[in-house]
Amino acid sequence: MHWRFSTSRSQKVRLPHNYDAIVLGAGAAGLMCAATAGQRGRKILLIDHADQVGKKILISGGGRCNFTNLHVAPDRYLSANPHFAKSALGRYRPEDFIALVDRHRIAWHEKTLGQLFCDGSARQIVAMLLEECPAAAVDIAVNRTITGIDHADGRYRISCGADEASAPALVLATGGPSIPKMGATGFAYDVARRFGMKIVEPRPALVPLTLGGEETLFRALSGVSAPVAARAGKASFREAALFTHKGLSGPAILQISSYWRHGEAVGIDFLPDRNAGWLKEAKRARPRSSLRSILSDCLPTRLADALADQAALPGELGNQPDRMIDAVEQRIANWQFHPNGTEGFAKAEVTAGGISTADLSSQTMESRRLPGLYAIGEAVDVTGWLGGYNFQWAWASGWAAGQAI
Ligand code: FDA
């Protein structure tokens, strides 16, 4: 058996048949797992079907990789078991990844809301992770199509055409199906199912929402953005929302999309900084003004016009009864949108759902049923907020498995 590989490492080498662990997927979680285990002296095969490692890292954060968030906490992750992520996130923290980045002299900055980005390029993060994989311990094989996976006699055997490799541990790190055109697949789910693990229904998350019916009126606002508070169920986010030609996007909407379920409304407060009663105060202070002109003082003009049209409060505010003024204020504070869907996996930054945490150890990410089988990163039913949370989960879960294999 000869594994041949091409990465930034220079020569092609012959790889041994037997490994301590095989890691499927050389993305954020797989690279971290291989580096951690390799540094512990484990012999690792890291294998990917893409032509290079860490492709999502390279495009992340607009090419600057929002690699972690200073405010990481378990309640900023969605999962059927909200406690599952605590252990891994607690043992490998943002400070640990920042220390690694600092050791590699990669300059970074906080952009907003605790989000840390490279000053330079996401390429530095991929290069750092590759450097962290000891060449003597980690064999990296890209451009490989996995054609078979078997488990017998305590060993996992994988084949790629005529080539085979085996190990007592197999790590599923092939991520979720978001952005298929980048090579993302539901492969981890297929393998997990085959080994008897349950899958929490995968769904697009951190994804734009689409509007239909009468709400297509808002498509005319395409390109307009405003700071809002967006709500779905009990979740609420104060960030910018953006109207698009299909519906709603922007950070506040991407965040809320992870919590939104089909059939539910999304409430938007277009003036989240205003105290209750502000419109009545405006009526007293400027009775000759129209709602349109009051709104256009604090919102983009096109948005102010659209809301004033919809609110149908004609004429001067001073001529309107207070109860009408109150009703309009409440509508602006909790405008009900009824999305008819999302832009789907093609546009979703992550996949929510995935391999059920019920089948995994939260300490090691190992299957409770099948010794030696691990799942990490986005493949698992743990999904973070926008802003570096998902990479931190990839690092933390990859590190946890890397300590165990
Ligand atoms: P990841 O997707 O990184 O890696 C999976 C690997 O498995 C890939 O290399 C893939 O090629 C490989 N693979 C898939 N199927 C395979 C198969 N059948 N056989 C072999 N290999 C296979 N997060 C964040 O925290 N900050 C950010 O700035 C961003 N920005 C961002 C931008 C965009 C456009 C997207 C799409 C996503 C983000 N994210 C993000 C999310 C982040 O990229 C994501 O959470 C992590 O990459 C997940 O890491 P994983 O290693 O689990 O999967």
Key traits:
22 strands; transmembrane helix; elongated; binds dihydroflavine-adenine dinucleotide; single chain; five-stranded parallel beta sheet; alpha+beta; Elongation Factor Tu (Ef-tu), domain 3; FAD/NAD(P)-binding domain; 405 residues; seven-stranded antiparallel beta sheet; membrane; 2 domains
How are the secondary structure elements laid out?
Elements: E1 21-24, H1 28-39, E2 44-47, H2 55-59, E3 66-69, E4 77-78, H3 86-91, H4 94-103, E5 108-110, E6 115-118, H5 123-132, E7 138-141, E8 148-152, E9 155-160, E10 163-167, E11 170-172, H6 187-194, E12 199-205, E13 209-210, E14 225-232, E15 235-243, E16 247-249, H7 251-257, E17 266-269, H8 278-285, H9 291-296, H10 301-311, H11 322-333, E18 335-337, E19 341-342, E20 350-355, E21 373-375, E22 383-384, H12 389-404
Parallel strand pairs: 1-2, 1-11, 2-7, 11-21
Antiparallel strand pairs: 3-6, 4-22, 5-6, 8-9, 9-10, 12-20, 13-16, 13-19, 14-15, 14-17, 15-16, 17-18
Helix pairs in contact: 1-5, 1-12, 8-11
This protein binds dihydroflavine-adenine dinucleotide.
How would you describe this structure to a colleague?
InterPro entries: BaiN-like (IPR004792), BaiN-like_dom_sf (IPR023166), FAD/NAD-bd_sf (IPR036188), RsdA/BaiN/AoA(So)-like_dom (IPR055178), RsdA/BaiN/AoA(So)_Rossmann (IPR057661). Pfam families: HI0933_like, HI0933_like_1st. This is NAD(P)/FAD-dependent oxidoreductase. Its cofactor is FAD. It comes from Sphingobium phenoxybenzoativorans. With 405 residues, the chain is α+β, with helices and mostly antiparallel strands. It folds into 2 domains: 2-201 and 352-404, FAD/NAD(P)-binding domain; 209-342, Elongation Factor Tu (Ef-tu), domain 3, CATH 2.40.30.10. The protein has 12 helices and 22 strands. The strands form 6 sheets. Strands 18-17-14-15-16-13-19 form a 7-stranded antiparallel beta sheet. Strands 7-2-1-11-21 form a 5-stranded parallel beta sheet, with helices on both faces. A hairpin with a 2-residue loop joins strand 14 and strand 15. Helix 1 runs parallel beside helix 12 (389-404). The model is unreliable at 4-14 (pLDDT under 50). The chain binds dihydroflavine-adenine dinucleotide. Dihydroflavine-adenine dinucleotide binds next to helix 1, helix 2 and helix 12.
